[in-house]
Structures are given as structure tokens and as C-alpha cells.
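Box S1 | Example of a co-folding query
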Amino acid sequence: MSLVALDIDSVRARFSALRAPTAFFDGSGGTQVPDSVIDAIAGYLRESNANLGGAFGSSRRTDALLTEARLTAAAFLACDPDETIFGANMTTLNFALTRAVGRTLREGDEILVTKLDHDGNVSPWLELAHDLGLKVGFVEIADDTTLDYDDLERKLTDRTRVVAYTLASNAVGTLTDARRIAELAHGAGALTWIDAVHYGPHAPIDVNELKADVLLCSPYKYFGPHLGLATVRTELAAQWRTYKVRPATHRFETGTLAHELLAGFVAAVEYIESIGWPAIQTQERALGQQFLDGLPERCTLFGLPTMEGRVPTFAFTVDGHSPRAVAEHLGARDIAVWDGDYYAVEVMQRLGLTDGGAVRAGLVHYNTAAEVDRLLGALDEL
Ligand SMILES: Cc1ncc(COP(=O)(O)O)c(C=O)c1O
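Box S1 (continued) | Returned holo structure for pyridoxal-5'-phosphate
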């Protein structure tokens, strides 16, 4: 990774929300958005609000916006514009996509999910299994929260049709070796079904490099509006009969999209491009290391203890205090963190964090060293 310094003051000046005294470490649940995203959404509603396909200006502009949003999404994911699918959020898209592939599956077919995954890439399979008589297997994780690749290999069979996995854990920040999983899955004749939601704000996504058959993410996690985005390989999508109304031309998008949010999405990707991944990653790594170096002794970190193999999302507990009490202590000092299980049901169970979960500080590039100091200082008070 090349070291490119981030001009943090000029970055933060682009977000009205960051003028508040709050230190936002809640980005894993959704990041703040730059003003350019807000302006794009408002601008669309002011000047171009319409449905598609009309013979008048605002509708033509909406057609053009949808084309631009597809081109932007395709560039962001390194897929074809026709392979982009917009929807309400990742989970809603995943229920729709899993139901579509379900029409190609039969009783006894097997799906593998991982214990590192958010439930958005687990429960859609459990529900499909309930309807179709499929078997769902859970790939284990090691004590250090890395995926157990030997267990994955052991659990793959000639009936495995899909391996569903995340690129990064939204609970403990651990990255997976996505290339390795794809090789194993494809070697067994299974599809790769990738959750890139938590990875989205931290690194570029390339569906070809990942060998993704299906990939889902959520622009609201990477400085955009509340929206979901997915991609399915063309040859694969062509084989599925999807649930849609007859006149619709898109195979997966049902009904009218949130056009104003597509305008916000385009602006969010422009924002990321204007900063650049190297600068984002340099800042995240420095902040993450600062957090790890300064975590008070009374705190127990769950997950990898260095910045290798992880994103700067940290789950921890504080001796003698419930996660909720810690979050409240921090909240009272204008420091936003999450507590609970953040829908990462399996990993929390595996780590024994079933009573209130853990505190989660999710750092992104717009956080500052001074904010991390504030967080560490406030934890020290406990
Ligand atoms: C890793 C991961 N996957 C899936 C989801 C669900 O995303 P959405 O809220 O877009 O349905 C989340 C949300 O926190 C997540 O962190």
C-alpha cells in the first residue's frame, strides 16, 4: 500500500455533519455523507423529479441519471452497467436474489455460509432452505476470528451450490481471503455470493478479481444515501427466472427506484474518487493503529490485535461495564459507538458475546487522531 497523506481538514469541511461536536465512530452502521451528496439529492428533486420514459425534460433527465448511476456503479464494482441492480438495501436485494436462484435449486442442495457473516447473508439462505428443503452449513472461524479455510474445504461437497461470505466482518473487522474462497467454491462447482457491505468504505471492489458471481453492498456505508446495490454475472442472471412485472425490462429491479438517491449515489462515488483509496487507507490505518496502541487494559478486544488482515472496526468489552453502559457513557460525551450484536449473530455467539454483545467503534477516514484520543480518554475514565 502506498502512503498518501489525507488532508483531513479539507475532507471534513466537505461534511456539514462533521461540524457537530460528535465524534462519529458509528460509521459501520452507516457513514455521514458529504454536502455534495445532499445537494445532488435535493437538486434532483428540485429540477428533475419524474418517472422514467416520458417525452418531457424532467423524465429525460431522469433517464439520463439512471444511465449515469449504472455507469458509476459499474465503474465502482468493475462490472458491466447491465449487471448493476439498485434496491432498497442489501438485505432486501439479497432476499430477492436468493429467491431467484432458489428456482434453480432442489431439495438436498447445500449452501455454505460463514460464521463471520452479517445475518443479511445468512437468513435469506435459512429461509430458502426452509421453503425448499436445502441444507445450510456454517463455516467456522478460529479463535482469532479469521475464517477456518480447512473447515470450508471439509464442508464443500458435490451438492454445494453456493458459498456465501463476507469480505470483512461488520463486528470484528476481520478480512477474508476472498480469492481463496472463490477458488475453493468454484473448484467444487458452487457459486460465490459475496457481501461487500462492510468492506465498501475501506477498499476498492473488483468483481473480476474477486471472482464474484453475485456481490452486494450498501452505498449508505460508503458516504452515500440509504440504498442497496448488487451485481450478478450476466450469464448467470440470464439463467434465472426472476420475480418481476411483465413490462419491466430490468430482471431484478421491481417498481420505481429512488431516483433522488441514485443522484446521491453518483455524488458519493465522485466523493470517494476525489479523495482516492490510498489516502483513505493511509488515514484508516494510522487511526486504527492509534486505537489499538492506546486501548486501556480494562478493555478486551475481540479480533485481530494489529492492523494486518482487518479494517478499523473494533469490537471490545470493558471489565465491569455492560456494552450498553459503555455506549451510554461515551454517548454522554458526544462519542457515537454501537453496542449489541449488529446482526452478526454467529460471530458473537462464537465469541461468547451473547449478553449485550460488545461495544463497536467503527473508524472511517473522516475520523481524526484527536477523536480517537477522546474515545480512548473516555474509555480510560471507566
Ligand atoms: C456486513 C453487512 N452485511 C449486510 C448488512 C445489511 O445491509 P443493509 O442494511 O443494506 O440491508 C450490513 C449492515 O450493517 C452489514 O454490515
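The chain has two domains: 8-25+276-380, 38-273. The radius of gyration is 21 Å.
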